[in-house]
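step 3/5: co-fold with pyridoxal-5'-phosphate
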Amino acid sequence: MFQKKLSQLKSQDRFRSLILPMGIDLTSNDYLGMSNHPQLKKFAIDALEKGLDIGAAGSRLLRGHTNAHKSLEYFANQHFKSEKTLYFSSGFQANYAIFTTLPERKDIILYDALIHASVRDGLLASNAKGFKFPHNDLNALESLLKHHGNNARTIWIAVESIYSMDGDYAPLSDIYDLCKKFDAYLIIDEAHATGIFGNNGKGLAWDLIKKDGYDRIITLHTCGKAIGVAGGLICASKNTIDYMINTARPFIYSTAPLPLQAILVEKSLEILSSPDGDKRRKKLFSICKEAKSLLGGNGTHILPIILGEDKKALRISTKLQNQGFDIRAIRPPTVPEGSSRLRLSLSSNLDLKILRNFVSYFNSIKNN
Ligand SMILES: Cc1ncc(COP(=O)(O)O)c(C=O)c1O
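step 4/5: write tokens
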């Protein structure tokens, strides 16, 4: 079974296998080095020594709701100024819950062509109709709004605030203006912005939220990237979250996240709001600046090095790995056909000298 499909993947250079971390991390999403923060480790040990249970042992509605979850959601409400927040085991699960629960039959979802797979899968399973617009194309979005807006019960627009494979920003403020004009709701995936951008890492939607709140906006803050732990926090109006608690199947029919996970996310958000967080962001931004001067790109912590062919991306990534740089080839379907690439992921833990060595070695082999 599957032999033919696996052979096909191999012949197309699309076969993946699991590789353990090796060498210098230029791949993970641990942008602020929080996943090995000594205070978080100590906090975890202390919590367990004080008798914290490992598993939540039930779904949130059936005894799996603990003080750890309650405390994190309360903290996140204050932090992100949301009316209510809901914590999931992963960002994927949270996105899937949003898109399978909130948009209904007769609704439409307009989504950016480069939106994450978790949104795509959610909207494929939703009863609403989805329409894709070309990446960051405001004119195309407005055309869709004009064309389909009148017939829709509710219009939802789905974007990432910074795109996971290209590291470029969404024009959030312009998109939000269109939402107001066409009475649409905006769902913003802040996966790669949380912890880094906005006041104390509150995300790129922060300015919009500060002004208008969550009446028209829902945000997703994933917790396994710059926050360094795991999970996804949905911030929204009270009614939206109450509705999800009552009807979102991925929330209702799944065991609650580990209490320890919730405790550590709260602690990490606290650290990221302190001078320690500022120091990490400052260091990351200086690395981004240097990387942009060496390699171009958008100046963010996600720097795509587009190589085109899968074979080339694989060949160059293997050479870099053999030299001790842990960078992986990203191929379709994760990125569009013909745009296979190396995704250079920058972290505040990265030494500038190592970055320069990487670029110099990459330049020496990129045409071989
Ligand atoms: C834009 C975006 N949204 C959602 C997710 C899913 O988050 P998680 O890894 O917490 O499941 C990811 C992670 O890859 C992502 O890049």
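step 5/5: annotate
Residues 90-92, 95, 116, 118, 160, 164, 189, 191, 222, 224, 232 surround pyridoxal-5'-phosphate (CB under 6 Å).
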